[in-house]
Structures are given as C-alpha cells and as structure tokens.
C-alpha cells in the first residue's frame, strides 16, 4: 500500500483556503428583520361617484418583519362641531400574488389593519376602497382628500403616489408630516392636459406620519359622498345662533307674559268699589278720650292671615295674647330659680265671656285644658305639636268662611307649587334631550326658568275676594292709627284694660312697642304691679316697667317652642 505524502506547498494552499472561507463567512450579510419600509408606492383611482380606490405596494428595506400594522383614521374633526366619517371596504393584502390573511379591526375612530408578514420575501400589496373622502365646498366644487400614508408602524424611506382621475382637476395639494401639524410634500404635480393624473412624492417619513393628497374638481364632475356627523359639545348643545337663541328668548318672554296674565286674571285681589271696611277704630268717649273698639269680632289671627295670606307664628302668638286679654287665659310669669335661669310661664284656663272661633278653641284646649293643671311654656312642644297643624287649617278655613278668600291660600300656593315642580321636571328632561340631540338646549333652560317662576311666584297667587280686599284697605287705616294715634287718650281708670286690647292687633299690624310703652307709662305709683293686669301675672316684686322685657321673652319663647318639632 502506498502512503499519501503531504508536501509543505499543499499545507500552505489548504491553510489559505480555510482562512479565505472564514473571512467570506464573516463578510456575508445576516438576515435581520426590516426596520424600514424602503418604498411605499400608491396607485389609486377616483370614480365619478367619489369612491377612491387605493393600492399600496410596500417594499421592505431588508427582511419582512413579523407583522406590519397600518391604522386608518375613520373620523376627522372640522369646524362647526362636526366631523367627517370615512368607511373603508374591500381591504385585501397579497404578496407575490398570494393572499395574506390580514386582520381588520374597527376601533373608535380608526380601522386597524394588521398584516402577518413573517417570511414574506416579496413586496406586500395592500388595497382598499375609501367612501366619504369627497366633500362639498361652499362654492359647489368637490374636494377629495385622503391620507394615502398614515398610521404605519414602520418609517418610510420613499413615498410615491399617482391617482387616476375621471376629469380635469382645478387644484392639487399635498401635505406631509406629523398628523396634527403637517407641512408640504417634497413634490406634487399633475392636473394638466399633458399630465392630467396628479402625482405625489415625499420621504423620508417617520412611523405614524402622514402624506395626504388633496384634489379639487369642478362642480358636477365628481359626486359628493361625504358623511358628516355632528359632535356633541356644550357650545353646540346650548348654541347662541340666531334661531336657538330666538326660540329660547321667545319661550322666556311668552312664559313670563303668560304667568303675568294668569296672575292678573286669577291671582290678583278682586276689585272692590266699596269703601274700606273698618276692622277697629278709636272711638271718642269724652273730651280727649277714646276707646278701642273692634268691629264684627274680627280677631288678630284672622287679621294677620288676611294681611300676608299665611298663618305664621306671629298670628298664633297674637291669638294667645288676645285670648288672655279677653279673659280665656291667664299668663303667669314664674320666679326664676336664678338670674341665669331661662324664663318660665304657665297658662291657666279661665271662663272668658265671648264665643270662641274653632281655631281659638283648639289652641286654647291645647295650652290650657279645662280642669287641668296649668301648662308651662317648657311643655308647649308636647302640648301643641299635635294640634298646631289643625290650628292653621282651621284658621285658613275660617278666613274662607268669612268670605275673605274664595279658596284657602295655602291650597292655592300648594297647587301652584306642585304645578311648578311638575313643569320643572318636564323642563329638566326636555333640556337634557334638547342638549343631547339638538342645538336648542337654551330653549330647555328657558323652560326651566319659566318653571322656577311658577314655583316661586306661584306663592303670590292667592287672591282676596272683594270683601277681603275691602277689609285689607281698612286694615291699612287701622295700621296708620296704631302707628300714629296718641297712646295717652284712653278713658281714665280703664287705661290698662283698653291698652291691653290694642296690644294683640299691634303685634300683627305694627306699633307694638309704642302701645307697650303706654302700658308702662300708665303705672303712676311705686308699688309692685304683679297682678295689676288681669291677663298677665308676675312675681311679687314685678312692676309694669318690666312688662316690655317680660313680653319680649315670652313672645320669643312661645314662637320658639310653639313650632318646635
């Protein structure tokens, strides 16, 4: 067997071959996934009906990535609180004539196309149709605008586009750059007889940047297929445009005039041709003397209700004082346990000498039951709490029975209040609906204003009859007398009794302080006056000069406890 002999020259050649192979391996390019689209070339065509067909050929600069994503905006805001709405259809993707299973997802304001491009070696062709890109101009022309490049997940080195158009164009424009503030493209042209189809060139562009083609056509050559959607904004919902503002002002004026007309018709006191009906007067009984005389047994509580159309604490307080003055009740001020202690009074039932009205009897039975222990002011909430509503109801019924009101004032107020609340609820619902779906929200606010007018001014709707109106005029005269009549002209020897009769009416009509002072001035001796008043007793060292302070505390205590719940 012969033996193979390796010469030094062979060893040298083999080494050189190994080194060359190693260097060739190091120099060979590696297959990295592309981070750049080398070219994004668009071929498009515009149909006479405004439909834009787009075919984009995407060539990668290197091996294709695992996925390529392109997001197409399907809404675009314009002036006037509106937005254009676009619709993409027939979205297809191929590579080397073979389909690519593209994922198409419609999101809020965008159609997102995801292309699985792993292993693709040839350019990817993405085609679709756009509806809604042909918009109307105020002058009648049609403008077709579409961002041929937008929302791409990779940057683009070079962009080209050519759009076949069905007619000559009036103007062509190209914008490129960030979506919110694009500039102009590198080059665009076309629209001439020699080159009627517009062309667009730009690049490089970063991921997500846009290139938009804008073409304007003469009126009637390309159909408008815009889809406009109104956007909800406060400015639009409550528009101050002439029509919505005019309707709102008209509703406000008509509502106000309507309520004013109703008030004049049914909420105003009846006209009275009769002379003012006197409720009480200071009747002369001698030289420089006059006594206080009440006509037809009209009581202070009735007077207060007629004046302000309400039964309020002052009316009930004046009624208690009047019951005491008329002999149905004795008010007794108790000595204080200390100078810092709260004042305390008791109410004791007395026989009286005249007939009681229903509300007076109910009140009297509560504060001073027959054949019962005197009720203290500290016990008033428990004694009065269950009947004060009845007292108010009976007093309202009383002024209606006397013919001063055709209907109870509280019922009239409640009816208008309920009507106002019902109108308010309807107005609120109407405002919500008008603001949500139209630009006439101001009309709803006008309705709310009218409803609040009914709620609050409806409290002024109770109306007095002609009898009540005449009495009210007479009360004006009586009030003038209570404020101006001399307080030192009461019959001699009967000053305290006469002045006491005036006091409850002065509580509701005015002049209370001056008649209270007249009671103080009637005391001409230094002796204690704890029992000088038939209707008000006090501790043994009490003087009439203490009456203003005592009654002030009593009235405050009664009004505080009488209506406590």
Give the N-terminus to C-terminus distance in angstroms.
132 Å
Structural class: alpha+beta
Count the E strands. 25
Label the overall shape: rod-shaped
Low-confidence segments, given as residue ranges, are 1-6, 16-32
Helix content: 25-40%
Rounded mean pLDDT is 90
Question: Could you give the order of strands across the largest sheet?
Answer: 7-6-10-2-1-13-17-16
The count of helical stretches stands at 14
Please state the CA-atom Rg, rounded to the nearest Å.
49 Å
Percent strand: 15-25%
The biggest sheet amounts to: 8 strands, mixed
Polypeptide structure, described:
The protein is an alpha+beta fold. It is 36% helix and 25% strand. The strands form six sheets. An eight-stranded mixed sheet has the order 7-6-10-2-1-13-17-16, with no helix packed on it. A five-stranded antiparallel sheet has the order 11-12-18-14-15, with no helix packed on it. The longest helix is centred in the last third of the chain and has 29 residues.
